[in-house]
Design brief:
Layout (H helix, E strand, L loop, with lengths): L12 H14 L3 H31 L6 H9 L14
Helix pairs in contact: 1-2
């Protein structure tokens, strides 16, 4: 079993009530719901940080697409004749 560490948090009453509702619906303790939420947040933040770092590396290496080409591509989404993604210069 993985070791746990106790953490004290204070939640706004409205948020605490929402956590309690979820916990009751899932038949889990509120601490489990909070742990799941924190883990999801941390995972998302790690993904975001890695994506930003990759983007900065790509830019440093000159692997970028022209802004106007990206805008045109996005505007073409779900339109007849949707454009292919722009190529990096």
């Amino acid at each position: 079993m993985t070791k746990s560490a106790a953490v004290h948090i204070e939640l706004r009453q409205a948020l605490n009530d929402r956590v309690a509702e979820i916990a009751a619906a899932l038949d889990k303790p509120a601490s489990w719901v909070i742990e799941q939420a924190v883990e999801a947040f941390v995972d998302l933040d790690e993904w975001r940080s890695a994506a930003i770092e990759e983007g900065l590396r790509a830019a440093d290496e000159g692997r970028v697409a022209c802004h106007e080409d990206v805008v045109a591509w996005i505007r073409s989404w779900d339109q007849p004749g949707e454009l292919d993604p722009p190529k990096c210069d």
